[in-house]
Design brief:
This protein is α+β, with helices and mostly antiparallel strands and about 220 residues long. The chain has one domain. About 20% of the residues lie in helices and about 30% in strands. The longest helix has 15 residues. It is globular and about 35 Å long.
Amino acid sequence: MRTRGLLIVGMAAIAASLLLGVVGMASGWVGGSSISLPGGMMGSGFNGGGRDIGMDRAVDIAQGVAASYPTGGLVADEVIEFSNNYYASMREKSTGTGAFEILIDRSSGTVMREPGPDMMWNAKYSMMRSGSFGFSGSGPMTVTAQQAQDIAQRWLDANRSGTSANPPDPFYGYYTVDFQRNGQIVGMLSVNGNSGQVWYHTWHGSFIAMRDLGA
């Protein structure tokens, strides 16, 4: 992988602070350079065991997370199965804007907030509210959705030749972009909504299946 401006941000501390059990989820809520996290973080430590909970169970867990949010108003938007984890996005019912992203362990069903952009760039639902890592409040982003898609495509052209960026999903402070090859999703990245910085999601592994929940 060709990346520029690689930033490694205290991975052990991040992983320890992010891990959340499903039962305790409610109480736990709290450009051109690229950033990535070591693939081993999600590639082996979170994907332990040979048992797979399956897509139906992953969907139930994602919907339970949305329902458990203390102030309500959230819905699980989609669940994507990757070889290392299940990914799910939570969306606000009232605005249609993404709230936050989670990963679900394939073997145990354990839930954690997704590392990277969701933790450091999420301007409304972040677990880190100190103003660090590009946190800039939940106001309008200066990078438009079309600009974010264009930024993502330029990064893909330079780093993942032959792939194309799908229209981005807006979250507070950033966009998440699925990208595809030959009509099939092969990965994800995020674009900061103010700086245009790109963060490639290294932790998913290979795409397997997707369940659109119609949110």
